[in-house]
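Follow-up to my post from last week.
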Amino acid sequence: MAERTAFLKKIAIAIGQDGETPRDPAEFPAIFASEDQAPLVAETRHRSHEELLQLASLFEDVAKNLNLTCHRAASLKEARKIIVKILEETQPEFSTEKSVMVHDHPDLAALNLSETLQKKNISTYSTASGEKDIRAHSEKALAGLTVPELAMAAGAVIVQRNLPGQPLSTSLLPSIHIALLRLENIVEDYDEFYARLGKYPEEAMVFISGPSKTADIEAVLVHGAHGPRALHCIILDGVK
Amino acid sequence: MNKSFYRENAKKAIADDKLQAAIDLIQDRLGKGILNLWKEKPEMDELRNRVKAAKNKNLKNLDILLAQLADSVEARGGHVFFAETAEEARLYTIELAKRRHVKLVVKGKSMLSAEIKIDQALVDAGIEHWETDLGEYLVQLDEDIPSHIIAPAVHMNREHIGDLLAKRIGMPLSYDPPTLTLAARKALRRKFLKADMGITGCNIAIAETGQVSLVSNEGNIRMAGTMPPIHVALMGMERIVANMQEHKDMLQLLTLGAAMQKISTYVSFNGGPVAEGCPDGPQEFHLIIIDNGRSKILADETFSEILNCIRCGACLNVCPVYGKIGGHSYNRATCSGPIGAVIEPLLNGINAQADLCKGETLCGACLKACPVKNDIPRMLLALREKLAYGDEKWAVEQQNPLEELAFRGVGAAMVSPGLWHTGEKVVRAIMKKKPHQNNMVTAMSGPGRAWTEDRDLPPIAEKSFARLWKEKLENRPLPAEKKEGSSAKDEGEEK
Amino acid sequence: MVKRKVSLFIQCLVDSMFPHVGEAMVTVFDRLGIPLDYPSGQTCCGQPSFNAGYQREARKAALHFIELFEDCEDIVCPSGSCVSMVRNHYPELFKDSPKMQERARAVGKRCYEFSEYLVDQLGVSDSGATFKRKVTYHDSCHLYRSLGIDRQPRVLLNNVKGLEFVEMKDSTQCCGFGGTFSVNYPEISTALVDEKIKNILASGADVVCGCDMSCLMNIKGRLSRLGETVEVAHLAEILAGSEK
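User reply:
Got it. Predicted complex:
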């Protein structure tokens, strides 16, 4: 604590304060204040289905350049078909067996994946709180399946917050990442994205806009550096 | 002329065709890209000005922001250590590692970690550590240092890398970038999953939410901040915004300036240990906020502007000098390029880094490219002034007293036309005696000698313009007067 | 348009090494009917000292300049870097003296670069010149970045009779002069001017034009040493050209 006081005092003096008493952030709300985002948030929630479809198209256009593969599904049933197809067609990287990590989320529960996948010799592991060996399974998994609660079309970005039953490693450790995205969770640009994000309490969060990549060798772009080598976004675009 | 490290290495770099081609590629793609972007999108100007204004506000209230950041992190169960010096930061990290019996460390790309020389401290403590950004990893295997802020291995070509990886990680020889990348992916994954501690830097800390945010395309920083049980984040004290709105603005400038990206592949936010029961790490989060000379810069209004730097590397991508000499010529300092030319002298001694602040042309491209409009040329001039006369506050010894005398002499001539024109006559006489070709001097003496190594030097003209004016131009017939009857041509000359 | 009197701020380099550039300026202004004078006490704007860090010397030169030129109507200079020095740096040299700073600002407001004056102040695009050569143009750093002047020289060049204008690659890239940089870091300076020359030659032009003799001196000196035949001309020289 003493070193904090000394450190901050030095800064206070450097910027022309007398530094005698540490300045309390609570007394300076203006420094942290920002414009009220409620009106913008409301705007994004009042979009028509057509407007949202346009945003989905924008997301897909931007995604192309990022090697982010997009799919459309009118229903959860269709989504399940797409997921199964992706898993069938993708070769495992970290194991000889195929497996998928599934976030604890009602949309994913409604997919009823494990039965279907078992028939294809693909194991399903839930990341729900209390499940055993989540990390060990994630390290070997072919795919991680998540449900982003928010996406930005102009950057083809999805967000993932560290929530109970929804660890961040699910979109990091497995060989590929599959995200199920509801149409109404797509906003247009940075302003709307941050407005909807608001003030989140979790300690960790990540924005994701494509499979991992690098161009560190002679500026040649390669996908699949240290994160998933492919990212699939399945956009649920059926009318609710 | 004393030969210096800077000049010696500049010479080597200039002769290195492969390096030149590699830097050309980056400068063509990214450097020109960012300049075009600012030119073609005037709305970007608003964004840049907003970020600059927010940064100014934040620097003026840095003590408050850091207090808030620390409080927010600690409220989550994270640890915050304020390190005034590099040594304190190193000590804290090593002692933590020892207490936790850390054997393997994975590092996310962090220039600050290089600045505080944590690598050697880890080695001395017997702790294995691996850079995980592909470029940094290759540089580490090569036992070298990075040569660009964003593209650390820009100086290495695929043949060199292929040979290196074959030797160091035993992969079958290949010069194919995807194959090489896949090998690195496999090799580093093992380290990520086994590591006891991840050390990252911090691109932008957010005071309000109590987090450090980091951008990457590779996913290595996510790995280093998520998988090991301990996460240590090193943060330069100035790298902070007040709230998420400011983060939104700065993030855009960072990813544009760094790689012309609307957003990087990953933007990760870390601010504390994970909740009980979470299968991921970190179980322990340590934020080390580092001064290491920054508060002195903050206190000097000539230089505090440089603390706005977001370390995007755009200035490197437009600098003609960097383009020729490459990142290793800057005395192997942590930061190269125009940003390095300002920050390294301020952090590591202006005399020691004199070549960095004198060895460029002040062309101004960096100022044009900088997303936050840092006036680097202005600060370079200020550094040069300190070298010219010496400076007590910054402990600068006058670099060249004889040079000052010479400039005083020239200065006297600048305020006395009589002395000035006499000087011209003297130099004219000296030059007349030198060897010539094409009516130009090929071997000059004194300060001109370095010039005539590679260039011819035009001589002082027989008659100065001042003399020509007096003798013929002042009372020249004007075209209107000449119109009547005269067929005299215009007094134009082609050369 | 009332023609204001132009006081020539000739630049130390032009005065001592390239007086014909000054003569060319006189020719052009005469052709346009602009009254001229030449404050004979002028020496140097102080930029060489300033860039090398010797602000105290630069300040003395600046004071001399301001005293000499502040009663002039319009001040015109054939060098972008000098005009930038006066406009952008003189005020900061006197930041400790508000009165001097005011005087510096006042002079700066009436100090123009040659092409800027012709196009922006006199509204001239066709200077009445003839120059039957293939010409490319180098954008000097201070002119381009500190003063924002790049359109004006091109307007003037494109209206010269018989002149074929070609852009070179990277015309705005620094030529490597940088004042004392050229003699303190000669290998880097040479590498930069070599790249500039590569681009000049690739353009196919047989004349390279610019608005700053410091850059042109640098380029000319290296061209000569390399034995290249491309010629170097200041804009004023081209605009002074008549039927040839």
